[in-house]
């Protein structure tokens, strides 16, 4: 581990010194302070968490953890895990639109492989049970007791894929206290409608049931257009296909998109002259276009606690369904604003308007996501000193989707489809043996087993060229673990914690096949046969039997690992503790995809495997937790230092080259035609493009997190955090430059994907890790106006600020001098991977009568209409990716009964 530098230690000590000073001043008055706390109306409520797999007080738990209550989540308009990103220090959550899944980054660590081959770096748990597929994190969040966000390696207790942290969503349990419930609704901008509620029913003194549900519908917030000028028009209706003609030929300067004004194939790509003319775009309906919402979920939970028994059993059945128009990448028009025409112009050059929130497509978006959960927690007390806890989880996810890939920015049309039958089933079981919370030794030991089987059925369709169909019926993971953790009271105030976990994980692909359909092989209609293509049924390429060949993907990999935790904490007094630990985290390697590619000229087959190694972290953390000012201020200060080895980085790139029979192109990328108007074909060295994972040799991450919760007076509360993070690649990483090389180097597609092209060789040592701002801050202020007999008015103001950062690991502006970019330094700023600093402001005002039987609330989220990019997928000079929602406002109301 590298040594901490002097500046880092100075910052840590300067943040911690006031805490120690105030804590020591109060040390002689512990007893008196405790008495004051019980009588202090400004005192904060005591929050219990389950970070150590047993209930402990938040301010007495020696880990960095944020706990968000149900009321906090509602006040901030949280609908799913993605929406908590601004409320937790060091957390950033984006969305990879092609997989309809969130990418969670914490303290600079994230996983970009969200396919069935990848695992997250931040584990998501529901009621303490691991949820393996990140799509599940998008499930609606409602009737929640709290959300716990643990930062730092959680490998000892939480195991696999908690490399840098864990998020645990804890649902509200049934209550024996009586029958009660709540129903609330929301209406807002973009025709948004939300309805949620719950009812609690105690059947008797031993058994209770709670039923909760939520539904969300919202129109798209995009300016959407259908484009009949793209190559594949099979999915467009007659009104779109017969839109007004604006030009008889391409390259006439008419229209607003590339496919209207300068499409090199539109004049020669078919035999139907009417279909080849340039037509106007058609505005899409907002209700079913990309980025709309149509979701619902319900949960039935039961709690059984026999009065004369020594056990309790909590069972949860939950279902979530999403039937929406999917999400799509957008162009960052704000970043491109003002770019000169010689470098590609701004959005008004190639889109209908200069608006980030717009999309031009020829493939209607579709997302069908259906997830069923079953969770059970059994607590059985063996005697006064020991208990058994059994956690059982089952999750079944089915999904299908359709997504336009090039969004009208490239004449080479493309779309990605996942078909019915795609999904994942998982089963997990964990049995724990726990001591009681008394005595000098408190311990937990357990066994864990996890099994997942994923099925993928889908294809990428390049209408003018080759297609790949994925049939992966059985990709499985089996993981076993043995773990234990114990805390020993060396003295009354000094505590030592030791933890260990052994993990054994196997991943296997059985019976997987990748089918190939090429123009050269006669499966696809061929180049410039647009008329033939558009007479085919829309599901024509969904049948693998129509493909000309396939190769097998059978593959297997196994990994074992030993994780540990050594921690010590000291109670300075009744209100202040200091702790430190050294802990490791581990994420297993992967089998990757297998590619067998046929040389069109020789007929020889070459096999490529894309396995990748495990990643590991080693973190040292020191922190202080203190309840100050008569328990009206909770303060947490944390410093951490992480060595990050073999980070798994997934991206689309070239893994080799092969000879293919393909069209010969001119300098503009357009195919050359012979005297008969057919493309000239020749055997050419073409790249083999794959989505694969690399290992980044070594990175170092260090930071400080200051989190506070202050109740300065009975009706007011101030909460928030400030963080500083430094996350960099610290070892040589010699790689091929893959950030928009066509545009930056002004080279052909084939040259940009050639892994042997020395022009693209670079060393990324010194680059910042993605989505990790150096500074972030959050400040939330709530105040209640007591109107006496007229009730209460509750106000909320929340502002979240994040410093500038990079959206990818490429850090383009750091390589202006060592790379031979053909684009000027000034021009690169319009499309590089920098993300400007931004602030998001939310506010609400809620009224409640004295009896609190009902409420009405007005709110606004992202009041300043900030455009925030969360994912970057730049290509050919277009900065694009996923974006946060623009300004949203509305009204909420509800009744309690």
From TrEMBL:
Q: How does it sit in the membrane?
A: Multi-pass membrane protein
Q: Which family does it belong to?
A: Belongs to the TonB-dependent receptor family.
Q: Which residues form the signal peptide?
A: 1-21
Question: An example Gene Ontology cellular component term from the record?
Answer: cell outer membrane
Q: Does the keyword Ion transport apply?
A: yes
Task: Give the location in the cell.
Answer: Cell outer membrane
Tell me which Gene Ontology terms the entry assigns under biological process.
iron ion transport
Write down what this protein is called.
TonB-dependent receptor
PANTHER family attached to this UniProt entry: FERRICHROME IRON RECEPTOR-RELATED, TONB-DEPENDENT OUTER MEMBRANE RECEPTOR
Top-rank taxon: Bacteria
TonB-dependent receptor-like beta-barrel domain residues? 353-862
Q: Which UniProt keywords apply?
A: Cell outer membrane, Ion transport, Iron, Iron transport, Membrane, Receptor, Signal, TonB box, Transmembrane, Transmembrane beta strand, Transport
Chain segments annotated as transmembrane: none
